[in-house]
Structures are given as C-alpha cells and as structure tokens.
Amino acid sequence: MIEKNITLDEHDNESHERFHAARKSTWVSVIVNCFLSLGQIITGLFSGSQGLIADGIHSLSDLVADFVVLIANNKSRKAVDADHHYGHYRYENGASLILGILLLLVGTGMLWSAINKIHNPESIAQVHIIALWVALSALIFKELLFRYMLAVAIRVKSSMLVANAWHARSDAASSLVVALGIIGNLLGFKFLDPVAALIVGLIVIKMGYSFTSEALHDLMDRAADSEIEDKIKSTLLSTEGVIGIHDLKTRKMGDFIIVDVHLDVNSHLSVKEGHDIAVLARNRVLKNFNVLNVMTHIDPYESDDNISSP
C-alpha cells in the first residue's frame, strides 16, 4: 500500500508540472499570436495582400486553439471521481481532436478564398512592400515560438502540447510561403499572392487531418507504441518471480498508458507470494514508464521441475 501511495504522489507531481508548463507556454503563445494576427490582418487589408490576410487568419485560429488547450489542460487535472475512475486525462485527446477540426475548417476557407481570386485575376491587387516586412517578422516570431513550445512539450511529455507546437510551426511555414508570394507579386507576378494563400490552406488542412486522425485513434483505445510495449514486456519479465507473461494489452489515456497483463508464476507459491510478485512487477512498470495503471492477473505455471518435485 505504501508503494502504491508513493506512485500516485509521483503521478500527481508530474501532472502538476505538466499543468503549469502547459499554462505558461500557452499564454506565451496567446500573447504572440494576438499581436501577430492583428498586425497581419490589418497590414494585409491595407497592403492588398490576400496571402498575409490568410496568414493572419491562421494566426487567429491559433488563439482559439490556445484557449482550447488552456481549457483542456485545466480539465485534465481534475481528480478521480465516481464517474471517471481513471481521471480526466482524455480531455487532452479531445482537445487535440478539436484542434484538428479547427485546422481543417480554417484551411478549407483559405482554399476557397484563394481559388476564387485565382479564377478572377482582375481582382488581385498590387501588394505594398510593407506586407513583406510584416510577413518576414511573423516568420521569425512563429519559428521562435515553435521551438520554445516544442521544448516545453518534450520536457513534460505532452502530446497535446506537441500538437499545439507543430500548429505554430505550420504558421511559420505558411509565413515563409506568404513572404515568397508577396515577393512574386512585387516583381510583377500578381497571381503568386493568392497562390501563396492557397498553399497555406493546403498546409493547414494537412496538419488538421494529421491531428484529427491521431486524436481519434487515441480516443478509440489505441495501443501504445510497439517500442514502449517491448520495454514494458522486458521490465515485467525481468521481475523476480515472473516466469512468463501473456495477453499484454495497452491503451492510451491522454499522455498516459493503461496496461493489462497476465503473469505466469510458480504454481507452488502461496497466494500472498504470487500477490507480492504482481505488486513488484506493477510498481516497476509504474516507476519506469508513463503508465497510469497496471492491471495484473496471476496464472499458475507448471514446469517439469514443479511436476517432478516431491
């Protein structure tokens, strides 16, 4: 019982660290995206750059995404209750799903607007050079934001924060495309500005599909990576008293994993001895991996030595 309480405390400490890291990095993203979206949209309207307006809308979608992350981050910290025996960690998977759907919608809107411009070239305006400087500034800020957010996400092992960080990287990529489109427009190739907006839309749709697909798989009890499963198997098999394992199953719960496994132990052991082996195996997995719970079942193992022993 003491070992179990220590493990739960470790999970609480880890969740506490993840919460504060996520809140801090997300608020940084909110502030940066607030200034960028306003600057890009206003400059895009006055300079006549559709690509910059599209990039500004993309940055604006980041603001919505950031608030989704803040809400999910707060909800996922809720303690175990009568209706949620494993906690509320799947709020993070739900947030990733919402982020993906948001990106799909924003990207589709960008494509629609860009295609209409390309079909009506007379409506394409000559872009002012100030749009280029704003696009390049946005590129630098977004790339720096991505690197900061990804470093935090990796440190606290949060897939939700990783998704939000790559959302910022998609912004940086789109700003680069927009800058190239504006340069083309300034050189006399006016159609390159809406082409840049179209490419930004495709980038956003691709990211949205990726996040949506990943989140749906996790919400449908997708297993942990095979590499992690192999390491969990090795840890269980190296536990003293464990002769073999079978029926190992894993499923994702937010950024944690839930494990079910059958352990083979000597059939001549007492119930208490078998229980102690199961507790030791469970605690070793909880200590070494990002695992929320391990459900073990003890199976008696009859070896030739056991059968022939008096």
Written overview of the protein:
This protein is 71% helix and 10% strand. It is mainly alpha-helical. Strand 1 and strand 2 form a beta hairpin. Strands 1-2-3 form a three-stranded mixed sheet, with helices on one face. The longest helix has 46 residues, at 2-47. The model is unreliable at 1-8 (pLDDT under 50). The chain contains nine helices and three strands, in the order αααααααββαβα. Residues 225-301 form the Cation efflux protein cytoplasmic domain. Residues 27-220 form the Cation efflux protein transmembrane domain. Keywords: Cell inner membrane, Cell membrane, Ion transport, Iron, Iron transport, Membrane, Transmembrane, Transmembrane helix, Transport, Zinc, Zinc transport. It is found in: Membrane.
Based on the model shown, name its key terms.
single chain; about 300 residues; 3-stranded mixed β-sheet; elongated; disordered N terminus; Cation_efflux_CTD_sf; cell inner membrane; zinc transport; transmembrane helix; Cation_efflux_TMD_sf
List strands and helices in order, with pairings.
Layout (H helix, E strand, L loop, with lengths): L1 H46 L2 H26 L14 H30 L10 H27 L2 H28 L5 H28 L6 H12 L6 E10 L2 E11 L4 H18 L2 E11 L2 H5 L2
Helix pairs in contact: 1-2, 1-4, 2-3, 2-5, 2-6, 3-5, 3-6, 4-5, 5-6, 7-8
InterPro entries: Cation_efflux, Cation_efflux_CTD, Cation_efflux_CTD_sf, Cation_efflux_TM, Cation_efflux_TMD_sf, CDF_Transporter
Main location: membrane
Pfam family, one: ZT_dimer
